[in-house]
Fold this protein.
Amino acid sequence: MGKAEAEAAATLIVRACQVKGDRWQSLAFDEISSVVMADVRGGVEPLASLSENPFWKPDYEEVVKRGFARLTGSDYGSEAFVALTEDGIKALQRHRTHVKF
C-alpha cells in the first residue's frame, strides 16, 4: 500500500472483519476498536505486541486517501464506517495464507 501507516490501518480493518463474521464488510470505528482492544487485553498476537511499538501508527485517513478503503458517515466520528475497496483487497492478496478471498 506504499506507506506503513496505511498498511497498519488495513491490518486492523482485516482483523475486525475476521472477528465480525469472517467476511469483507463496512465496520464502525468503534467495532474495529473493540476487536483491537480485546486482542490486546487477551494477548492475541501480533496486535498485543504491536500496540506496544511506538513506531506502529495505524492511519485510517491515509488508507482512505490512497484509495484502499472508503469512508462513509461523518468524518471519522462515531457515525463513520470504513471498508476496504476492491483495490485494498487486491493489495492484500500477497498475504493470502492469512486472509480469505
